[in-house]
């Protein structure tokens, strides 16, 4: 982000054992679905019940009981989004309101999203799991001197989730699992005055949070199983440096904290082996986005810095897929999903562009040996065009400083993933 007429302090972020840099998110809101290249090849349909490799740990800890050997999965997904803003902004000047072009193209960068999962048997009934991945992320940055920067010129959220899970098989039908998660997060949000690109409000920081998850797997038969998983919400507090403008219009630097809600989610998944070669699977996912109401920072010296109202609603995702065994060594996968946006029409913004989207996925799996297999996946996400209208007062409470944005946002994406799976 280009900053003029103000000094922006550098904030040093710690190096992570595994660096996750998700770009514009591919599930609803700023939620990430990319924890498995195998699952991506079927649009993540039935993910909490299939358990075809260790990456199931990212969705349902209870499904670990289907593994009688040490299982390892490691993969990466490449995300290439195409996100564009079209519209105009009206800004106040000494001579009256002026209308400016506020279009911005390719505002989300490509990224690599890795994942890792390890499942270890502990006797007959118990299983231990270790995982690393990311469930939330966002990367939107407007060009320098963007005419609508007052509505947000950068929104960047990166998370790393480290998980420890335990599963227990009660009998041949029922298994239960639970896990704890340590979440490291980094975030940056801000906006600029349109006249001179001067920082209006900006906060950049990092922090840790801890959460938990539960899951169960019901195996009606070897052909049919149902998975149910729940991941509890987490409040991630990002602490760091802040820049703002006080009530007298003077720039300031401060320290502060921003509480970011990472909402609860749940998945109900079904797997059914229809024939020896063909399996069908499906999922219904729910995310408690209604808890995401605003972005507001608490500063050490300057009190509350209100960044933006959000007021989202809960979202739903529906996925249907199939797996076809072409030969003992080859599998073909496909899937479709409908992802409902959590953002109400009247709450759409250019800083977190979001809309309903449809997933089209294809994948394949190849068994290299009895222990080693390779999975590949390819997905196109068709994001629908969404109208956006925003209004704000550059100086709160002063009607003469009212500014508006009127236009639309649209974002598609290609995802390509590769994953290796090994049984010890």
Record keyword descriptors for this entry.
single chain, mainly beta, Porin, 14-stranded antiparallel beta barrel, 22 strands, disordered N terminus, membrane, transmembrane, signal, Outer membrane protein transport protein, transmembrane beta strand
Task: Tell me what the structure shows.
This protein has 424 residues and is mainly beta. The protein has a single domain (37-423), classed as Outer membrane protein transport protein (OMPP1/FadL/TodX) (Porin). The chain has two helices and 22 strands. The protein has a 14-stranded antiparallel barrel.
Compose a concise summary of this entry.
Residues 1-27 form the signal peptide. Helices cover 2% and strands 58% of the residues. It is an all-beta fold.
CATH first level: Mainly Beta
Q: Please give the radius of gyration in angstroms.
A: 23 Å
Largest sheet: 14 strands, antiparallel, barrel
The N- and C-terminal alpha carbons lie at a distance of 48 Å
What's the total helix number?
2
Uncertain stretches of 5 or more adjacent residues:
1-25
Family: Belongs to the OmpP1/FadL family.
Organism: Aeromonas bivalvium
Membrane topology: Multi-pass membrane protein
Protein name: Outer membrane protein transport protein
């Amino acid at each position: 982000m280009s900053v003029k007429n103000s000094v922006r302090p550098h904030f040093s972020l710690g190096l992570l054992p595994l660096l996750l840099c998700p770009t514009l998110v591919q599930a609803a809101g700023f939620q990430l679905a990319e924890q498995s290249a195998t699952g991506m090849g079927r649009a993540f349909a039935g993910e909490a019940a299939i358990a075809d490799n260790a990456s199931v740990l990212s969705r349902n800890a209870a499904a670990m009981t289907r593994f009688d050997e040490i299982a390892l999965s490691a993969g990466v997904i490449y995300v290439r989004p195409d996100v564009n803003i079209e519209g105009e902004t009206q800004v106040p000047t000494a001579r009256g309101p002026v209308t400016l072009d506020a279009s911005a193209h390719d505002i989300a960068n490509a990224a690599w999203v890795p994942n890792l999962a390890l499942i270890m048997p502990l006797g007959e009934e118990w299983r231990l799991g270790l995982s690393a991945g990311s469930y939330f992320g966002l990367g939107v940055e407007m060009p320098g001197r963007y005419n609508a920067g007052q509505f947000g010129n950068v929104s960047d959220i990166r998370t790393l989730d480290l998980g420890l899970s335990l599963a227990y098989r009660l009998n041949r039908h029922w298994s239960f699992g639970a896990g704890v998660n340590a979440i490291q997060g980094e975030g940056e949000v801000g906006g600029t005055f349109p006249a001179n690109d001067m920082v209006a409000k900006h906060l950049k920081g990092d922090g840790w949070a801890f959460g938990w998850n539960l899951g169960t797997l019901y195996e009606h038969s070897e052909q049919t199983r149902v998975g149910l998983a729940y991941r509890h919400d987490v409040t991630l507090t990002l602490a760091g440096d802040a820049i703002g403008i006080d009530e007298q219009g003077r720039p300031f630097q401060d320290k502060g904290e921003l509480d970011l809600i990472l909402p609860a989610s749940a998945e109900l998944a079904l797997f059914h082996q229809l024939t020896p070669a063909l399996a069908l699977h499906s999922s219904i996912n729910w995310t408690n986005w209604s808890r995401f109401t605003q972005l507001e920072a608490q500063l050490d010296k300057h009190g509350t810095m209100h960044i933006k109202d959000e007021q989202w609603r809960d979202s739903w995702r529906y996925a249907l897929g199939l797996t076809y065994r072409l030969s003992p060594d080859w599998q073909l996968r496909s899937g479709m999903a409908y992802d409902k946006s959590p953002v109400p029409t009247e709450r759409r913004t250019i800083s977190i562009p979001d809309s309903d989207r449809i997933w089209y996925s294809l994948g394949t799996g190849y068994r290299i040996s009895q222990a080693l297999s390779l999975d590949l996946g390819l997905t196109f996400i068709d994001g629908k065009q969404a109208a956006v209208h925003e209004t704000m007062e550059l100086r709160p409470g002063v009607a003469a400083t009212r500014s508006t944005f009127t236009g639309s946002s649209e974002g598609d994406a290609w995802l390509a993933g590769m994953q290796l799976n090994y049984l010890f």
